[in-house]
């Protein structure tokens, strides 16, 4: 693997914003394995060891453990068409593939199913919306090693872009960028097509670290250009709509991971309304989608909530 050096890490402070970087590093050192965070979502359910023990015991006692584990590799490709009046005509039909919440170091098929699914897809841009590691602390080398073949399978003409989630450390960035995933740390880039541009912005994790800075990421340009925002969780939707974001892509919730037959999550690990936990939604003028993610958290179990690889087609409305 590629261990980061001080020369790798120091520039990240300027990219993320020094105040946010210092906030994040302090939380990484002191609080990443605790229950309470400093962001929008105060509870860190994945660090409740008792919850993991209880869930695994219940699955074994019910005889559903094998099925629950098998469901974790039943990847579904969701084709989502979105319509925007503000979308430039040059981007009509533009396709974006999203991966979220990989927790790559514990994938039961080592990511083979994800790689296979990606090989049959066509898209212009690839985005990865955080949570590369299973735990929120400890050794991250296995996670980065597991990410490499998945990132190699992403082949997008306009590039592959990622953000950090609440399981991720700032130290991940140099290695992920060496693998070809350009990270957005409260940053933005312009995507160009036939002389016209749209804005792609990405913020740091709002859920646990609270290190997101929308103003820094979007800037004044977001008021004028069609703006796509990557955020790990759906917890800053209202702020994103106020600042002029058009499209908001996120994950974090796993869609609940273990749901009732109706699709209603048993646990919602987020501070926002249930309507934003999974699938496509609107908030005022803002359109967004919350991915169910491709990995799992706490324990290898999914019910009525299959892992999701999402392909968006952006359409211009007249």
Walk me through the structure.
- This protein has 318 residues and is an alpha/beta fold.
- The chain has one domain (6-316): Purple Acid Phosphatase, chain A, domain 2.
- The chain has helices at 6-16, 18-30, 49-62, 65-71, 112-119, 141-153, 172-178, 214-218, 237-243, and strands at 76-84, 94-99, 125-128, 160-162, 182-183, 187-193, 196-202, 227-230, 247-250, 279-283, 286-290, 308-316.
- Strands 1-12-2-3-4-5 form a six-stranded mixed sheet, covered by helices on one side. A six-stranded mixed sheet has the order 6-7-8-9-11-10.
- The mean pLDDT is 90.
List the total number of helices: 9
Number of strands: 12
Percent in helix: 25-40%
Shape: globular
Mean pLDDT over all positions? 90
Instruction: Look at the structure and give the CATH class.
Output: Alpha Beta
Q: List unreliable stretches of 5+ residues.
A: none
Q: Enter the CATH topology name.
A: Purple Acid Phosphatase, chain A, domain 2
What structural class do helix, strand and pairing data support?
Answer: alpha/beta
The assigned CATH architecture is 4-Layer Sandwich
Spatial order of the strands in the main sheet?
1-12-2-3-4-5
CATH homologous superfamily label: Metallo-dependent phosphatases
Give Rg in angstroms. 18 Å
